[in-house]
Amino acid sequence: MGEGDAIKQQGIIGLGGGQVNWRTAVDNTAYTANANHYLIAWTNLTAGRTLTLKDASTLDAGQTYIVADDSGLASTHNITIAPLVGTIKGAANVKLASNYGQLLVWSDCTNWHSSSDLSGKVDVVAGKGLSTNNYTTIEQTKLTGIAAGATQNATDADLRDRTTHTGSQAITTVTGLQAALDGRLSKSLCDTIADAVNYTLARRRGTQFGTATSQRIGFFNATPVVQSTATTDLGTALANVGLRASGSAYPISTSGTGAFTGVHSLTETNVRSGSFETPQLP
């Protein structure tokens, strides 16, 4: 009997000693199995490779192969097992996709069958079981995005307590805030009041410009000054705050009747219109 000849025997066969199976080493290439193969092992993989199975009808029923990854690279570079004709395990192909994994493959003279690759499976652990409450990639990404030392959950009372609020927030992140502030009179002494904007002042108590006589006020580009004394000439007082131009002529105009008390000197220059009631001698 020569190499490759088939031995067929039904019943019980007794063998003494060890058993050696013929191993075919495949180095990083595709391969086609024939009737003389049994253990087909890939010793190197740099890309996915395919083991082609012959038409099952051309082989004896029970033709068996062991397909193995001896390189430890099958999880990255899968070994695909595909028949020329028919199916394997009801599909066009099966894959060996675990490092150092093995698959048992056999024929029924019509199609091919295979065991499951159990190399990547884990052992059962007491107290653990399968569950539909899986830890998803989305949940993992969310947790990964939380910075180390981030603030833990606080009570509602803490969140409402203004003393616990720190940091700053850009005014542009609050909708409409900038527009609302632009519509109000600025309290800054360095700001310019917007042109063509009407400002409504309080009507019940009025509005004060300057709350102390030592405060300085100026209008129309005049240098701000403190309040004038009671003996300051009216024209000078008005000019000091910018409510009239500087000068020595202080005309008084009236469209009604003016009353004067004390000693007065009226000239044509002073009297512009109307009439004045002069003091009557006793």
Task: Identify the CATH class of the domain at 23-114.
Answer: Mainly Beta
Biggest beta sheet attributes: 5 strands, mixed
Do you know the CATH architecture of the domain at 23-114? Sandwich
Question: Pairing-aware structural class of the strands and helices?
Answer: mainly beta
How helical, in percent, are the residues?
under 10%
Treating each run of at least 4 consecutive H or I residues as one helix, how many helices? 4
Give a description of the structure.
By secondary structure, the chain is mainly β. Among the domains are: 92 residues, gp9 (Jelly Rolls); 35 residues, no CATH class; 32 residues, no CATH class. It is built from 4 helices and 11 strands; from the N terminus they run E-E-E-E-E-E-E-E-E-H-H-H-H-E-E. The strands form 3 sheets. The chain has a 5-stranded mixed sheet, with no helix packed on it. The chain has a 4-stranded mixed sheet with strand order 2-4-6-7, with no helix packed on it. About 3% of the residues have low confidence.
Question: Could you provide a short overview of the structure?
Answer:
With 282 residues, the chain is mainly beta.
Topology:
Elements: E1 23-27, E2 31-32, E3 39-44, E4 49-53, E5 64-69, E6 79-83, E7 94-96, E8 102-107, E9 112-114, H1 137-144, H2 156-160, H3 177-182, H4 234-240, E10 257-259, E11 275-277
Parallel strand pairs: 1-3, 2-4, 3-5, 4-6, 10-11
Antiparallel strand pairs: 5-8, 6-7, 8-9
Describe the structure using short key phrases.
Jelly Rolls, single chain, 9% helix, five-stranded mixed sheet, four-stranded mixed sheet, rod-shaped, 4 helices, mainly beta, 282 residues
